[in-house]
Amino acid sequence: MNQKFSIVSTCRMGAGTFEAKFKPLSLCEDVDKIVIVRKELGPVIPKVLYRVLPKICKNPLMNMLITPFVIIREVKKHKARFILAYHYVPHFYLAFIASIFTRTPYILGQTGSDVEKLAAKPLKGAFLRMVVKKAVYLNVPGNKSLNFWNGLGFDNVQILHSSIDTDYYVPSEAKKEYDFIYIGRLEDYKGVNRIIEAMKRLVGKNPALSLAIVGYGSQEDDLKRMVEGCGLAANVSFHGFQKDIRSWLYKSRIFVMASDNEGLPCALMEAMSCGMICITSLVGNIGDILLDGETGFGFHLSEVDRLCYLMEYVYNNQDGLQELQDRAREIIVKEHSYRSSIELWEKEFMQLKEVK
């Protein structure tokens, strides 16, 4: 493509993940501007403009009735080359509808693994599979997702996911205030209760251990009650949503997750880019970057007792794991830096230059 072009996007994602998606895309030389249709303004990013939907679109039904026409208008107004959608409900469908009326090709971005569960259902997943089939590309987080879609017969799937500013998320010698840290949503599928249960067992051996929980969600009150019930009020602290994630990583020694499912979480990549020792459940595409014993430590959900073992092992041996920490950062720089994401986007754009 010789001329720069515009992209109109419909998406749902929180702070941090949003920047991880759109900052590298905005840095592509071919991209003139990205117009994002959403219910609220987003972070300031060069080349990114926002078309804020009317408040009535907060109603799911009105959202499905109104938003496609807003997208259609923005596509025509900016003469967009592509429509880009992240998160399948409802954004894959919104892009599909807008594409029908504008004859503009669309690219889909998988953010989690729920979309795979629906796509695997013979009847309920039929419409979703048709929408994905008509996309010029479905960008997925990693090899496990790629193999899933290939197994269903899709040949328009490529690995292209969030990336991290590895020049910003760098190792630090800052003073540590917490032994462990969890960063992410406080939802049931995130398995934060498993981390608290592990802390209960570990504090019985070492009463000075500490865990910082950074994030918010529907399970926050339940998790706080669990902490109180386990007698961990002095060991586990809740800090809500934080904009400056890097400073919280710098305050902590060991990053820990225990999710039921994931795509490829940005918080984990940020921690690895900072050279932290990371412990996580090996779900979704996490195994692409966290190689057990090489770039971090992993456990399967069928062996949750191993989470407690790994937290104790890493805490007791953290001074001897520098090579592992170096390899953790190295794999993120190589495969999930802004530079690597820009290269993948530009490759996609080149492959699509004949798409009408």
Structural class: alpha/beta
Distance between the termini: 12 Å
- How much helicity do the residues have? 40-55%
Radius of gyration: 21 Å
Tell the overall outline: globular
Question: What fold name stands as the CATH topology of the largest domain?
Answer: Rossmann fold
How many helices does DSSP assign? 13
Summarize the helices and strands and which ones pair or pack.
Layout: E1 5-10, H1 17-26, E2 31-38, E3 48-52, H2 60-78, E4 82-86, H3 88-102, E5 106-109, H4 114-119, H5 126-134, E6 137-140, H6 143-151, E7 157-159, E8 178-183, H7 192-203, E9 211-214, H8 220-229, E10 236-238, H9 245-250, E11 252-256, H10 266-273, E12 277-281, E13 297-299, H11 305-317, H12 322-336, H13 338-351
Helix pairs in contact: 1-13, 2-3, 3-5, 7-11, 10-12, 12-13
Describe the structure.
The protein has 356 residues and is α/β, with parallel strands linked by helices. It has 2 domains: 5-163 and 337-351, Glycogen Phosphorylase B (Rossmann fold, 3-Layer(aba) Sandwich); 178-335, Glycogen Phosphorylase B (Rossmann fold), CATH 3.40.50.2000. Helices cover 41% and strands 17% of the residues. The strands form 2 sheets. It has a 7-stranded parallel beta sheet, with helices on both faces. Helix 3 (88-102) links the parallel strand 4 (82-86) and strand 5. It is globular, with a radius of gyration of 21 Å. The two termini are 12 Å apart.
